[in-house]
């Protein structure tokens, strides 16, 4: 109180130039004495066993509850760095006995971090530290009112080598491996990248002891605006990976998600809740062929029964990729089919406007994709089965007609996932499968969803997507994995008035040029039938401590692409094939782990 009176008196004096230095000296002496008083109070409080804590409030002040019950406000010692995990910004203050003086908190933090630092989850078949950043397992960095804030993410440096030049970043375009007619099929590429660097933020509040509100956002630098290039500054842009809110009522076992997240078709390690997806621990940002996933806006409703049985319904943003064979469409007019007088005009997508990409085409959607999934958790394994429903739309105007009509087709499939703890803590076996028609968007190879019938009706393409993986943990700091996957499509075509086939998977295309080597790319109209891969890799958890964690990973993938057969221009058959190798060497620093 005496010091406060001295300070007030000094402020009341006229501010003459020759007094400024004296005022500054008094202020510095006050700060030194305040810091000394705080240290003495803290030591006394600990010795008396009464906690003697302090809490941080707005404007960089702290309040100590003294023995006489009076609340005194003091400036924080600028030499003591606060533990931000206990910082409260606005809202109700944190309990006084939850913190100690800033200096002691800093010293204690070094000891407790060494003992309590959460280890990377190497026992999970989908290590969250690799696939999701493990933000759920981290302590709050600080609080905003009653909302806790957790930070996750990593700095990534990936070195990518591909035996064929895809001119692709850290997300491999598996369906784009070139055939022999392209000069890019005869040279490799090396592409270092930091684009996979990721930041995630998890905010959580608890209205009651059985209700939790959450918000999660996850971003990396996988965007590529028109100004992005690799010549000088590599100005690749941030993008949304995930951004969603959730509500969970643990008493009733009811959960809601709204926003952009992994599709419910994605497999899960347990339950059906977000951030528990069964993502393979691979480096490639496009996963590997055979894995079922999308990341799209959606609203999802989940009900659990004793945290053992689960059922979920997800209403997800649709998008359709159409395909046509060579010569099928002529300025928007389909080749007429047998028995037709002329071709049908068809419109099935539009260029993006507003906040959509003006360089991309967007399908004309009639309804969202629907996913209904059930899951079961047992001690031995996690099981899932689900159904997928989709609807495709196109506008058509028949030859000689003056009216436009909508043509709508149903698509979808059935799928399942399983994770078996074959040797608990040491070996997991995981598999997934999705079979149906019009399901191409759910596979990393991006095989088309549909083509057209002669009358303009969308014709969903049959497809099978599946993978099998082994994940081993020979030691606490090593994870190894082996995956095999496949995506394969069937035929969907009609015969035209000219006797040729049109659609997807047609067998009368002239594909002779696909195997002719050219220094300039020649035309190869082959349509992809199958993309298969074999992937092996591992992660070594090198360092862990109060400074964070450092990991390095190595991955090798062999991929083979097989086209539908066609003619060689001389009456014979030809089956274009191509393949390639990819190698990743990756380093990651996870400062929040």
Indicate the percent of residues in helices: under 10%
Query: Which stretches are low in confidence, meaning pLDDT under 50 for 5 or more residues running?
Result: 1-17, 48-118
How far the N terminus sits from the C terminus, by CA atoms, comes to: 44 Å
Shape: globular
Instruction: Quickly count the helices.
Output: 4
Total beta-strand segments: 33
Which value, in Å, is the CA radius of gyration?
31 Å
Assess the beta-strand content as a share of residues. 35-45%
Largest sheet: 16 strands, antiparallel, barrel
Kindly state the mean pLDDT as a whole number?
84
* Order of neighbouring strands in the sheet with most strands: 6-8-9-10-11-12-13-19-20-21-22-25-26-29-30-33
Protein name: Porin
Biased composition (Polar residues): 109-133
Region (Disordered): 45-133
Task: Describe the overall structure.
With 593 residues, the chain is mainly β. The protein has a domain at 247-576. The chain has four helices and 33 strands. The protein has a 16-stranded antiparallel beta barrel with strand order 6-8-9-10-11-12-13-19-20-21-22-25-26-29-30-33. A three-stranded antiparallel β-sheet has the order 1-2-3, with no helix packed on it. A two-stranded antiparallel sheet has the order 14-15. Mean pLDDT is 84; it is low at 1-17 and 48-118. Residues 109-133 have a biased composition (Polar residues). It comes from Novacetimonas hansenii (Komagataeibacter hansenii).
Structure characteristics:
593 residues; 16-stranded antiparallel beta barrel; three-stranded antiparallel beta sheet; 10% helix; globular; disordered N terminus; Porin
């Amino acid at each position: 109180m005496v010091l406060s009176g001295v300070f007030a008196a000094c402020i009341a004096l006229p501010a003459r130039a020759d007094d400024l230095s004296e005022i500054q000296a008094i202020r510095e002496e006050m700060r030194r004495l305040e810091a000394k008083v705080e240290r003495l109070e803290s030591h006394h409080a600990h010795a008396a066993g009464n906690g003697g804590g302090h809490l941080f409030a707005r404007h960089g002040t702290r309040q100590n509850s003294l023995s006489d019950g009076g609340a005194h406000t003091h400036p924080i010692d600028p030499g003591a760095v606060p533990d931000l995990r206990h910082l409260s910004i606005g809202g109700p203050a944190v309990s006084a006995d939850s913190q100690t003086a800033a200096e002691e908190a800093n010293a204690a933090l070094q000891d407790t971090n060494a003992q309590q630092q959460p280890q990377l989850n190497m026992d999970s078949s989908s290590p969250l530290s690799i696939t999701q950043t493990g933000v759920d397992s981290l302590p709050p960095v600080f609080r905003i009112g009653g909302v806790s804030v957790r930070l996750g993410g990593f700095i990534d440096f990936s070195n990518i080598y591909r035996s064929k030049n895809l001119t692709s970043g850290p997300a491999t375009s598996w369906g784009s491996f070139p055939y022999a007619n392209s000069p890019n099929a005869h040279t490799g590429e090396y592409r270092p990248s930091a684009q996979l660097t990721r930041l995630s933020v998890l905010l959580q509040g608890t209205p009651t002891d059985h209700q939790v509100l959450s918000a999660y956002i996850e971003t990396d630098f996988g965007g590529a605006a028109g100004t992005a290039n690799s010549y000088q500054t590599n100005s690749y842009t941030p993008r949304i990976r995930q951004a969603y809110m959730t509500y969970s009522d643990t008493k009733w076992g009811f959960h809601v998600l709204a926003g952009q997240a992994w599709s419910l078709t994605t497999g899960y390690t347990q339950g059906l809740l977000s951030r528990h997806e069964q993502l393979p621990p691979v480096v490639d940002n496009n996963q590997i062929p055979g894995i079922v996933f999308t990341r799209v806006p959606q609203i999802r409703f989940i009900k659990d029964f004793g945290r053992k049985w689960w059922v979920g319904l997800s209403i997800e943003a649709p998008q359709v990729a159409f395909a046509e064979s060579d010569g099928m469409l002529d300025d928007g007019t389909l080749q007429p089919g047998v028995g037709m007088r002329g071709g049908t005009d068809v419109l099935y997508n539009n260029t993006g406007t507003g906040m959509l990409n003006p360089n991309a085409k967007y399908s004309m959607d009639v309804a969202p994709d629907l996913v209904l999934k059930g899951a079961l958790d047992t001690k031995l394994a996690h099981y899932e089965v689900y159904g997928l429903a989709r609807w495709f739309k196109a506008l058509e105007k028949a030859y000689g007609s003056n009216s436009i009509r909508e043509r709508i087709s149903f698509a979808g499939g059935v799928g399942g996932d399983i994770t078996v703890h074959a040797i608990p803590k040491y070996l997991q076996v995981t598999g997934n499968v999705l079979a149906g028609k019009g399901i191409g968007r759910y596979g990393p190879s991006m095989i088309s969803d549909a083509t057209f019938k002669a009358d303009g009706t969308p014709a969903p393409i049959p497809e099978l997507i599946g993978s099998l993986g082994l994940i081993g943990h020979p030691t606490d700091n090593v994870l190894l994995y082996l995956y095999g996957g496949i995506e394969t499509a069937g035929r969907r075509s009609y015969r035209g008035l000219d006797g040729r086939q049109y659609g997807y998977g047609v067998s009368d295309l002239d594909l002779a040029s696909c195997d002719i080597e050219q220094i300039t790319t020649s035309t190869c109209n082959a349509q992809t039938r199958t993309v298969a891969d074999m992937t092996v890799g591992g992660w070594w958890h090198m360092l862990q401590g109060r400074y964070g964690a450092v990991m390095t990973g190595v991955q090798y993938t062999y991929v083979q692409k097989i086209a539908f057969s066609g003619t060689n221009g001389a009456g014979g058959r030809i089956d274009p094939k191509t393949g390639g190798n990819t190698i990743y060497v990756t380093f990651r620093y996870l400062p929040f782990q």
